[in-house]
Amino acid sequence: MFTKAEATRSLIQEFNDLFSTHKFQEAARFAAPGATWWMSGLKENNPMAGLHTFEEHFKHVESIPKTVIDWDTVEVDIVELVVDADGEKAVVEVAVKIREDDGEYRYKNNAVLIIEVKEGKIQVVKEYVDFAPFTKYIKEKEEKRGKA
């Protein structure tokens, strides 16, 4: 029999597996009704910054044009996952990489997520990410596309 902490660890791993394979609607089923996703940063630098419902967050993720992010080239791997003894709060470090046509990874960044879980459902995600590397990556990608 799973402890609450083990159940939460399993839930987060399964959630990340779905998210990292771009099955966003399936990943969203792990959220409780009214669940929220907060992302660090300023709106002028990152349109996803601030507090949103899970539905709003995933709609935004899915609406990003393929010319900006081709989700088939994005990898999100758990680096570290720590769950409290009650199984209600987890701290997750993820490594995000975007693979280019030549197979190289020109964007690599880590983010830290604090995830609150109650009754087997995600209630809150707080995502702390340095958005500067992504802004630089997009700028370089646009410059390269402009030269092509």
From TrEMBL:
Residues in SnoaL-like domain copies: 12-123
Database matches in Gene3D superfamilies: 3.10.450.50
Descriptive protein name: SnoaL-like domain-containing protein
Species: Crepidotus variabilis
